[in-house]
Every structure is written in C-alpha cells, then in structure tokens.
Amino acid sequence: MIASEKDPSTSYFPLGAARRLVGTALTEDLGPDGLDVTSSATIPADQTATGHVVAREPGVLAGAPIIAPVLDGVASMTGGTPPSLEVRIADGTRLEAGDVIAVLHGPVRQVLMAERMMLNILSRLSGVASHTRRWADALAGTRCTVLDTRKTTPGLRELEKYAVRAGGGTNKRMGLFDVAMVKDNHVVAAGGVAAAYAAIRTRHPDVAIEVEVESTQQALEALEAGARFLMCDNMSIDLLRATVAAARSWVAERGEGVEIEATGGLTLDVAAAYAATGIDYMSVGGLTHSSPIIDLALDLD
User: Fold this and answer.
1) Domain spans, the chain
2) Smallest Cα–Cα separation from 64: which of 177, 198, 163?
3) Does the domain at residues 137-289 carry the CATH identifier 3.20.20.70?
4) Helix spans in 48-179 (H)
5) What range(s) does the Quinolinate phosphoribosyl transferase N-terminal domain occupy (predicted)?
6) Nearest to 95 by CA among 55, 153, 68
7) CA atoms within 13 Å, Cβ hemisphere of 27
8) pLDDT tens digit string along 245-294?
9) Among residues 36, 158, 233, 259, which one is catalytic?
10) The pTM is what?
11) CA distances for 248 relative to 1, 245, 251, 252, 298, angstroms
12) Fewest CB within a 10 Å sphere: which of 189, 194, 195, 223?
C-alpha cells in the first residue's frame, strides 16, 4: 500500500504533539500566570470532588490519552496536585449517550481548570473519528479504504490523523515530505507529467510518487511515465470505472500493478458506488476539515 508508513498503528498516540498542544492551550486559557479567576475566588484550595467525563451522544472515541497531559499541565502551571485519573473506554470504541469515558478525582480547582480544554480536544478528535467510522462502515466489504488528506487544522495534524486511524481510516501522507503528489501545477511548471515524474524520481528515489489525473488518457500517460499510484480527481462513476479498467489492463500486460485513488466531491451516499469501480482508496478532506464535534461533558458528583 502506498500510504504514509509513519506510525500507521491505530494504537499509536502522538504524545509529543499532545504535550505541545496542551502547553499552548493552557497558556491561551489560563494566561501567563496560570489563573482561573472564578474558581480561585469561589472554591477553597483543599476542596476535592469526583468528575465523570461523559458522552452526551453516540460516536467513536478518540483522544482519551490526552486527558492525563492536560491534568499534569494544569498542575504544573498552577503548582497544584493533579487529580487521579481512570480512563474507562479505549480510543476507537463506539460510544453511546451516557457512557462514562473517564473518572477524575482531586482538587476541584484543578478539575475545572482542565475541563474545557480537555473536552475541546476530546470532542474534536472524537468528531473526526466518528465521521471517519461512517466512511469506513460505508466501504466495508469492498477493496476500498478511506484516506485522509493534508486538509487538517494547523498544529493539530498528528492528532487529527490519529483520530482518523481511531475511526477506521488510513493516513495517506503526513506532509509534503513523505509522499510526492504531482498535480496540474507541477505538470505545467515541469513541462509535462513525464518530466515531473522523472525529476522527482531522480531527486528523491525512495519517495512514493502519486500522479493526479482527470481523464483516462491522462492516466495512461502517467503510467507510461512510470507512475504506479494514480489519483483520479473529480471523475464521474462511469469515467472512473473506465479509467480503472484501462489502467489495470495496461499494467497487467506488463506484469505489474497500480494503486488507484478517487478524490473530489465524494459523499457518503455515493461511497459504495465509487468503491465498486475497483479503486483502492478514496480520499476525503472532510474527515479533518469538516467533521462536527461529538458532545462530551464533565459531570461533578
């Protein structure tokens, strides 16, 4: 499979990225002095309580491992003691309304300082995972896998791509550095598909190369140039089916294979029909740029 091989496991959680995010978000929320003016004025420093992180609606969980860094970050910033934490549901698990994701116990001030940031991140990542799961379910039983894109929130790419994996999707590439994608502007600048492909292969011989095509003829030209990973952009189902058949026939005559991706304007209601054309992948930018959040809450006893 020609996709990013950087930490492909669903179980891998990008802790470094999470800690960087927590540091930035805490300063944004508590200010340079680490202050919650409401809690510090109304809640005694020694008051403790138990809180439950609860799902308010169905979905798929992603981001539970970030709760601990959030609690630790609040404690470090304020000089307090982090609450104890019990995570009860693993990432990738389907949630029902009322499910208790985690239980916290400790200083109320610390819990409330952590509440909104923790829920913001969990809700966002769980929204991505839930949206991805709908696509994965729609493609179940086909040869097609749903891929994400680089259309991620700046600074959150590793975490959002982790959420895609938690939802049953696959990461295509982490950035501009690990997979080369030849698009129309590259073709114009390089003087043709063959020239662009050759230049990349010469400069970066070990990097996977994908070529964007918009017609069957362009697909065959890309194959002639050496490409074995095609991205069929904004094709109708009939055109895509014809392109897939022509491309697979071309490489079969040479005893080779090709991987084919569809992209552009895809929706859940046509996902199965597009998958039936014989494509290997379907890339959906909306997994990361348009997923609605999942409603999660923190309830104190």
Assistant:
1) 15-129+292-300, 137-289
2) 163
3) yes
4) 67-78, 108-138, 157-166
5) 36-126
6) 55
7) 6
8) 999 999 999 999 999 999 998 999 999 999 999 999 999 999 999 999 99
9) 233
10) 0.94
11) 16, 5, 5, 6, 52
12) 189
Considering 5, 88, 143, 183, which one is annotated as catalytic? Answer: 183
Neighbouring CB atoms inside 10 A of 206's CB total: 5
- Residue entry with tokens 């097609």: 144
Residue 126 region by backbone torsions, left for phi larger than 0, else alpha for psi between -120 and 50, else beta: alpha
Rounded CA separation 159/155 (Å):
9
Residues 6+ apart with CB under 8 A from 160: 124, 125, 128, 148, 152, 153, 288
Q: Cα 200 vs. chain centroid, distance in angstroms?
A: 27
Known active-site residue 233: yes
Q: Residue 173 corresponds to which tokens in the numbers above? A: 């590439």
Place of tokens 């510090």: 40
Contact by Cβ (8 Å): 223, 250: yes
Say if CB 225 and CB 209 are below 8 A apart: no
Model confidence over 171-218: pLDDT tens digits? 999 999 999 999 999 999 999 999 999 999 999 999 999 999 999 999
Does the active-site annotation cover 6?
Answer: no
Whether 151 is a known active-site residue: answer: yes
Whether 116 is catalytic is yes
Which entry of 115, 160, 212, 261 is annotated as an active-site residue? 212
